[in-house]
Amino acid sequence: MRQMRKRAGVLAVGAVAALALTACTTGDGDTPGGTADGGAEEVEVDCTDFEQYGDLNGKTITIYAGIVAPEDTPYMTSFEPFEECTGATVDYQADKQFEQQILVRAQAGNTPDIAIVPQPGLLAQLVATGTVVPAPEGVAANVDEFFGEAWKDLGTVDGTFYAAPSGASVKSLVWYSPTQFEENGYEVPETLDDLMALTEQIAADGNNKPWCAGIASGEATGWPLTDWVEDFVLRVGGPDVYDQWVAHEIPFNSEVPTQALDAVGEYLKNPDFVNGGIGDVSTIATTAFQDAGLPIVDGQCSLHRMASFYAANFPEGTEVAEDGDVFAFYLPSEDTSTKPVLGAGEFVVSFADRPEVQALLEFWSTDTWANLKAAASSEETGGGWITANSGLDTANLVNPIDLLSAEILLDPASEFRFDGSDQMPAAVGTGAFWRESTAWITGQSTADTLTKIEAAWP
């Protein structure tokens, strides 16, 4: 048996079955995690809830993913109770070229048992190769219980459910300086009108430009701007119209997308509002997205719209907290009665239907696993991982941005929608949408931009 490391994270009451006060023992009477000299720390594992998976001793399950060190370590930790109690071995293989290689491997018939897929669009491509196995009934039941219909739909292709959700991120965030807000009497906006009023107030005060932004990302330049557009399509048209737009049931250059892009332009094309600490409007296209929000720390700008993962880009020593150097607030809707949320996530897809593979998939879709993973991420990498699993106990989260994001995701009023460009055909989502958005910020009109994207749709 593999040694298990002691985890400090608090587990949800519903997840205590995985790490309880009663230790399971191996066949020779040794407690898992112990050593002859007592040098290794011991985690006591109650294996009762793992009996449903059967005796998997000697079985190996391969996982292939693009999540590399150090973020891969909490994944491996989260599977240790499963390994301890079933006897199976989980072989986690990380690859920075995952998104390209998984398709190559699927087309060649050289698939892993399980893969962690970051977009529904890639899931659909994999299903088209004929190598993907539908999700087991136990997984479907867990997703119904802990995630709900919207997330289940994202893992469904042509009416068949294939992939359970795993991790998630929130994109509908605006970064700011709590200190600057307190010093100037600024308040976190609750509606889009409030956000514009705040922007105008900051501009009028003249201490700095309200917004800073950057969309440069090598070959992927433009994607941060598509996130802006998606957030505003959600807010201008609502989730149903957003779904129609993503599925091309309405044209890309129809009324709601046009209103949304113009609404983005009210912020990002106004020289009085951007680009604090960096330059004028033209610098948005050439500023690396990783650097775009950093002027907040120096007081050179006040607001930066970017996803929850942006926290990692602030300089070492920056306190990210509600009363710290920087924090974030939910990008508001038109009114307080609605709460659309743009985000992204990971999906667990299988290429094998062996019992041990199906057992791991089912465990992976539980609230027990979600809390093990959250606790391991908090301890081993300082956080940076959340899930939309409703069984998540936020006591397992130590990172303030993780807590904020989880609060948004798990709010019953939230209407979550996945990143639109990740669901569109590649010619649009990672092609024309990125390219023409970049042309738009450098001067191209809204009408020309959306017409060109519409023309690119296969």
UniProtKB/TrEMBL annotation:
Residues 1-22 form the signal peptide. It comes from the Bacteria. The keyword Transmembrane does not apply. Keywords: Signal, Transport. The keyword Hydrolase does not apply. SUPFAM superfamilies: Periplasmic binding protein-like II (SSF53850). Coiled coil: none annotated. InterPro entries: Bact_solute-bd_prot1 (IPR050490). Belongs to the bacterial solute-binding protein 1 family. This is ABC transporter substrate-binding protein.
